[in-house]
Here is the input.
Amino acid sequence: MSFNPLRSLSPRSALPAAAVLLVLAAGAAAHANRPEPFGDRVVPGASDASPVSAQSTGAEQADLQVGPGVEAYSRSTGERLWSYRREGATALHLARVGEDAVVLWDDGMITAVNTADHSVRWHRGFPDLADWLRADGEPGADTRTEEQREQTMLQRAADALHPSDDKVNDAFVTVVTPGLLMGFRERDGDLRFNSRPPAGCDFDPARTAQTDDAVLVPRLCPPAGGSAARQLPGGVMVFSLTDHGGFLNTGPDVVMRPLDGHRVMVEDGPVIGSWVYDTRLGTREAACGTAAVPFAAARPSCEK
Here is the structure.
């Protein structure tokens, strides 16, 4: 038995061992240089691109701007602090929830990045979101200019993303398109609720309103055609982390305006008028200027 195994190997027998070492080295290099999942790239300091379609947010220590990724700037010096990009995708809109920025991308992905340590928290895909953002195939799509297409995508992204900073039951983010809505728990991206409108109906992202603990999504059900067609009533679906089945009977043209973290002014046309819905209690407030109970000492106000 040889006490020097390497000396006993012939040049012919040493080749496989060398090849194995080369394969292992190449594998290690490929692992080190492989792209991050979902094309993520977080770069500290100045980035190689300037922000376009900038959208500033009210961060305490940094201004965040959108396009083509997420750029963070010092509020005191204007210096670029860090940049978050996704290869092959463009950021369209973001919403701040605590220390996180939830970002909606043109490829239909929603991500959350922590603005303190710049780590990407989670990724979630949304079915058919990218197609709706582009508005391809819709009436007038063929005549839109490139600038008009970009503005349509930016507006729809802003209409779709609705954060709710619920400090009791966990913050969550709701994404709304005409054919689907999905609610994600913000801290980990867990899907907490999803819903499709009834057949023949659509959700209306542009009229959707959110409070700290709920999101209120109008639905519209136009007639199927013909004079005998019966139009389903309008309505507003209410979703939260604790109640996914709330529904408010309203007309089809309802307009909602948040008053504070829990109360929404509901304007329901000249016949029904305006009233206030409390998302924390899950109930409609007594009519403004009328006593909630007999001999009440104070009457509710719509503009607290």
